[in-house]
């Protein structure tokens, strides 16, 4: 479980198939390595990945990516030198600064517009209807692992938007991307639970009891 509050931006040192069927990503970081252990869960651009090696002297850790992860996320678009959002898994004693983020990417969106307003930045993202159905104005969404508040939903365009304040722009990778690039999306899990309960007739059963 994560909060969507990015702890630091890491840099991709190396990525690719180190042996047939095994895609490995080596990431340079600092804060993440302070209390790292093998098997830890790290959110990399919103994707929950498992640490399989680390070197504190080189300030580097590595994670393996399954074929399904490469198919379902934007991580396949990364290159050596790319920056990524990093967050360690939530501890029971941690402050909950964002919202409940699982690191299980629901799908991808495509950035269709950046529009500055003052020192803030509007970002508009296009996605598929299957994901957009769970996105509501003033609701939560994780974009590349960043907990954000949706401002508007444009159903006719299959789009939604959000605003990044000046501070956030300096701390996450989204403003560094270009129009047309992909982002990982994770919708608020509460919306999916509510839909599931309604579809099973749970609410009707409660009313009639």
SSE layout and pairings?
Layout: E1 8-19, E2 22-28, E3 41-44, E4 47-55, E5 60-65, H1 67-72, E6 83-88, E7 107-117, E8 120-126, H2 129-132, E9 140-143, E10 146-149, E11 152-154, E12 159-164, H3 166-169, E13 182-187, H4 189-199, H5 202-208
Antiparallel strand pairs: 1-2, 1-6, 2-5, 3-4, 3-6, 4-5, 7-8, 7-13, 8-12, 9-10, 9-13, 11-12
Question: Main attributes?
Answer:
single chain, about 210 residues, alpha+beta, Elongation Factor Tu (Ef-tu), domain 3, 2 domains, 7-stranded antiparallel beta sheet, 6-stranded antiparallel beta barrel, about 15% helix, globular
What does this entry look like structurally?
This protein is 15% helix and 41% strand. It is of the alpha+beta class and 209 residues long. The protein has two domains: 8-88, Beta Barrel (Elongation Factor Tu (Ef-tu), domain 3); 107-196, Elongation Factor Tu (Ef-tu), domain 3 (Beta Barrel). The chain has a seven-stranded antiparallel beta sheet with strand order 10-9-13-7-8-12-11. Strands 1-2-5-4-3-6 form a six-stranded antiparallel β-barrel. A hairpin with a 2-residue loop joins β1 (8-19) and β2 (22-28).
């Amino acid at each position: 479980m994560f909060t969507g509050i990015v702890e630091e931006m890491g840099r991709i040192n190396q990525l690719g198939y180190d042996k047939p069927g095994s895609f490995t990503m080596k990431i340079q970081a600092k804060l993440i390595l302070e209390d790292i252990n093998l098997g830890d869960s790290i959110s990399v651009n919103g994707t929950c990945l498992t640490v399989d090696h680390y070197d504190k002297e080189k300030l580097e850790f590595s994670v393996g990516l399954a074929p399904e992860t490469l198919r379902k996320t934007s991580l396949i678009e990364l290159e050596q030198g790319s920056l990524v959002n990093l967050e360690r898994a939530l501890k029971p004693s941690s402050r909950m600064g964002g919202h409940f983020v699982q690191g299980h990417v629901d799908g991808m969106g495509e950035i269709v517009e950046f529009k500055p307003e003052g020192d803030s930045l509007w970002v508009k993202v296009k996605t598929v209807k299957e994901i957009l159905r769970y996105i509501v104005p003033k609701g939560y969404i994780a974009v590349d692992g960043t907990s954000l508040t949706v401002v508007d939903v444009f159903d006719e365009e299959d789009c939604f938007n959000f605003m990044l304040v000046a501070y956030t722009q300096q701390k996450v990778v989204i403003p560094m991307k270009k129009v047309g690039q992909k982002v990982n999306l994770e919708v608020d899990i509460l919306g999916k639970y509510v839909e599931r309960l309604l579809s099973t007739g749970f609410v009707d059963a409660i009313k009639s009891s």
